[in-house]
Write a structure and sequence with these properties.
The complex is a heterodimer of chains A (80) and B (389). Chain A is mainly α and 80 residues long. Chain A has 3 helices and no strands. Chain A has a single domain, classed as ACP-like (Non-ribosomal Peptide Synthetase Peptidyl Carrier Protein, Chain A, Orthogonal Bundle). Chain A has helices at 2-12, 35-49, 66-77. Chain B has helices at residues 6-29, 35-43, 62-73, 77-96, 101-113, 224-265, 274-303, 308-312, 315-343, 345-348, 357-363, 372-383; strands at 117-120, 138-140, 143-150, 161-167, 177-183, 187-191, 208-215. In chain B, strand 2 and strand 3 form a beta hairpin. The two termini of chain B are 30 Å apart. The model of chain B has no long low-confidence stretch (mean pLDDT 95). Classes of the chains: A mainly alpha (80), B alpha+beta (389).
Chain lengths: 80, 389
């Protein structure tokens, strides 16, 4: 799952650094992801994983790292 | 509103009536800083109104600050906007100062000496995007230095201290920002332009080049991203909207007085302007309800430490704040324009007691302070993921 998340981040997060250099718990915002870019990341994740982030999850912290995104996706896909 | 403590708001309302209002025309005409307004507010200790009582302030909340801005806005838009912008800076310090001894001692100084704090978020080259900086803070040996080319600093020459956005390091991405408290004595400020505008002339907001030094603990601990979404944006949009509500209220008050005068001249005959007054009265009520409702909701979230902070960083809340900004900035122009149509030539003449020309010029600033089109673009993006569930 992490690799899929990373490939979406590579395409849409518009980071100032190569995502490959960032650890799973590395701060994506500190790496240059803007709020605007984060919306595109959310849309791409929803499409790729066939999920919808409920409004309670549409917060900065939920998308701050690969690990945080994975936790959110696992919660949404649990029981599938 | 029933929930506000009347006393502090009453003090500001009296200052607005007796000191701020009589100076408003000269502040506007000469594009001069509303010095008597700020002096009176300092004397009444209102510049530390948002500081908690436990730290020597008045413990005012969002609803109370909003009512103060509205009261000032009824008499002088520039004074209201300066007061609003100062309170936004105080809110950032109070809510995000963390454990920094420098910020704590500054808040004590704020209570004692009532310094006026200006915001330095704008920068030449970022295209008006507050969440991007070009300049970065350089730290070494417990001290920092920074230099910024600011496209506008409201009351830049009249402020005592400043809160400046910059990158967290010179090499950090543009959106990785911190907020730094800087003291005038540790700064150089060079004005690089003039402030000669259509309205809001008394805010005196020309461009400056600045340099600043200080100690590391003057850098607020929270990332600016959190400070912006939890505090700076909600305080800005609610307090600005409150100042605009004051402008709208004042213009409608003049229109009402005009219609009453017409009615008295011919009792029994409905003045032709009365219907338009009825119309603008409902518009004003809509604007007021909107501003007060969002202020109440925001105050409730800010005082609820359990779920409040997470709600403040949600997309749904950001959308609501942005909607308040765009709708109230549009309504203030419509309402003042209606008042002008009602008062006719007596509203158009600057020497008339029904004059609303200053109101109209000031109102037009609202759509430009963080451009509405930029906000609509942000909202459009957020609505792509928001479900309203």
């Amino acid at each position: 799952m992490n690799e899929q998340i990373r490939s979406i981040l590579k395409e849409h997060a518009r980071l100032a650094v190569d995502i490959a250099t960032l650890a799973d718990d590395g701060d994506l915002y500190q790496a240059g992801m803007t709020s605007h870019a984060s919306v595109n990341v959310m849309l791409a994740l929803e499409g790729a994983f066939d999920v919808e982030f409920p409004d309670r999850m549409l917060r900065r912290g939920v998308f701050e790292s690969v690990t945080a995104i994975r936790t959110a996706l696992e919660e949404l896909t649990a029981g599938r | 509103m029933e929930t506000q403590k009347p006393s502090h708001v009453d003090v500001v309302a009296r200052i607005a009536r007796e000191i701020v209002g009589p100076a408003a025309d000269s502040v506007d005409r000469d594009a001069r800083f509303p010095i008597e307004a700020i002096d009176a507010l300092k004397k009444a200790r209102m510049l530390s109104a948002f500081v908690p009582v436990s730290q020597g302030g008045l413990g005012a909340g969002m609803i109370e600050l909003a009512a103060m801005c509205e009261a000032l806005g009824q008499h002088c838009s520039a004074a209201a906007m300066v007061f609003a912008m100062h309170q936004i800076q105080v809110a950032c310090l109070v809510r995000h100062g963390g454990k920094s001894p420098a910020i704590a001692s500054y808040l004590a100084e704020l209570v004692e000496k009532q310094p006026l704090i200006a915001s330095v978020t704008s920068e030449v080259g970022v295209g008006g995007e507050m969440r991007n900086s070009i300049c970065g803070i350089e730290r070494s040996g417990g001290r920092f230095k920074l230099a910024k080319d600011a496209s506008t600093i409201s009351y830049g020459e009249h402020a005592d201290d400043y809160l400046i956005t910059c990158r967290s390091t010179p090499d950090a991405p543009a959106s990785d920002q911190v907020l730094v408290l800087t003291r005038k004595k540790d700064m150089t400020l060079t004005r690089t332009g003039v402030w000669d505008t259509l309205g809001m002339r008394g805010t005196c907001s020309p461009p400056f080049k600045l340099t600043a030094t200080g100690t590391d603990d003057q850098v607020l601990a929270d990332p600016f991203a959190d400070i912006a979404s939890h505090t700076m944006v909600p305080f800005s949009h609610i307090l600005w909207a409150s100042a605009w509500l004051g402008i709208a209220t004042s213009a409608v008050a003049r229109a009402r007085a005009f219609v009453r005068q017409q009615a008295r001249a011919k009792p029994g005959q409905m003045p032709p302007t009365a219907l338009r007054l009825a119309e603008v009265s409902s518009m004003l009520q809509t604007m007021r309800t909107n501003v007060h409702d969002v202020a109440s909701e925001c105050e409730a979230l800010m005082t609820d430490s359990e779920t409040g902070t997470s709600s403040l960083s949600s997309i749904a809340f950001a959308l609501k704040m942005n909607n308040l900004k765009v709708s109230s900035s549009q309504m203030v122009v419509q309402i003042v324009n209606h008042a002008l149509l009602i008062c006719g030539i007596m509203g158009y003449k600057n020497d008339s007691k029904f004059a609303v020309g200053r109101h109209l010029r000031d109102a037009h600033s609202a759509a430009l302070m963080v451009g509405n089109d930029r906000i609509f673009a942000t909202n459009a993006s957020m609505l792509l993921v928001l479900k309203d569930d």
